[in-house]
Amino acid sequence: MGCVQHHKRNQSPSGTIVLLLVVLLIASFRSGRQSLNTLQSGAHASDSFPGDSSRLFNLGLSNRTKIILNIGSNLDPIVPRTETGVACAVTIAFEPIVHELIPSHPAVHVVPSAVADHDGLAVMHVYNTDGVSSSLSKPVMSAKWNRGKRAKGPKIVPLLSVKTIMQTLADRQIHFIKTDMQGFDFTAISSVPPELWKDKYQVPHFTTEVYLENVKTYFGANNDLCTEWLPFMKNAGYIFEGLLRKREGYESQKSLEETCRQQQIGGGDLVADKQDNAITLKEADALWRHHLQPSTPTNKISTVYNYPVLGHDKNDDFTAESRFSSCPS
């Protein structure tokens, strides 16, 4: 790009400081000191620590605390479920656009960064109310959510790679990963070799935003369930357990493989340059379990994969702060 346009809205001093700290963080990656220096507490106060992830204890975490990664949380990161034995857990949410607007919570830590397949800086295109549709690319078609007042323009954001995050947290128990990255979920997750997901990290369950039928929402976003996700996740030792919102042909890995076979026969030609306003966006949340985990019964799918989210209602029963206490040491 020849130039980058700046926002007319004045950036707060605290926001500038946070951005500078994150840039310094990325520089430290380049010098071989991989770390997550900008993990924020629920009150959004920064804690800094070197690459030794045992220093996460500075955030008051027990060595038995399970980690939930919510990549692309927007305003409502997921919160550990206290009623299912995962109360001794915290969510690390990655949100580059509206991180300062996320309510504080004792079990949620916010990192003001985008996540990708590499560390660095990038231009994020901000769309929709509260930036809910912001992406590292531009949408393939004009729609109400990405034009007019809902097109906010570009914003420079820091990037953390999935590789860096997983290396930093390597000796922690990653309990669950949820991605909602506006088309770049697969690019980020697949940047970690499948054998590491299968043998080293063994994250029990994933929920990943995917595209169906080769219909893309953003230019350059290779995120199709059949073309990209299924082959990679099979190599990574994961089994498809359906979509969060049920859909015929996507009930199990067996049915998905048949659906993908039919998609391949049909050519799957509804890609970026052939889309128009008449084509409905085909996005979904795919559910994956590691092959060492037991199969999830149908009546337990929601419990395993669909976490409560942190909203603005402090009295919400599932996310109320009173439900969370310090984990035993």
Taking all Cα atoms into account, the compactness measure Rg is: 19 Å
Secondary structure: number of strands: 10
Q: Can you count the helices?
A: 7
Describe the global form: globular
How would you describe the overall organization of this protein?
With 329 residues, this protein is of the alpha/beta class. The chain has one domain. 21% of the residues lie in helices and 20% in strands. The protein has seven helices and ten strands. It has helices spanning 13-30, 162-168, 185-189, 194-201, 225-235, 253-266, 301-305, and strands at 66-71, 89-94, 108-111, 114-116, 120-127, 151-161, 173-179, 205-211, 238-243, 283-290. Strands 3-2-1-7-8-10-9 form a seven-stranded mixed β-sheet. A three-stranded mixed β-sheet has the order 4-6-5. Helix 5 (225-235) packs across helix 6. The longest helix is centred in the N-terminal third of the chain and has 18 residues, at 13-30. It is globular and about 55 Å long.
Fold topology:
Layout: H1 13-30, E1 66-71, E2 89-94, E3 108-111, E4 114-116, E5 120-127, E6 151-161, H2 162-168, E7 173-179, H3 185-189, H4 194-201, E8 205-211, H5 225-235, E9 238-243, H6 253-266, E10 283-290, H7 301-305
Parallel strand pairs: 1-2, 1-7, 2-3, 4-6, 7-8
Antiparallel strand pairs: 5-6, 8-10, 9-10
Characteristics:
329 residues; alpha/beta; seven-stranded mixed β-sheet; three-stranded mixed β-sheet; SAM-dependent_MTases_sf; FkbM_mtfrase; Methyltransferase FkbM domain-containing protein
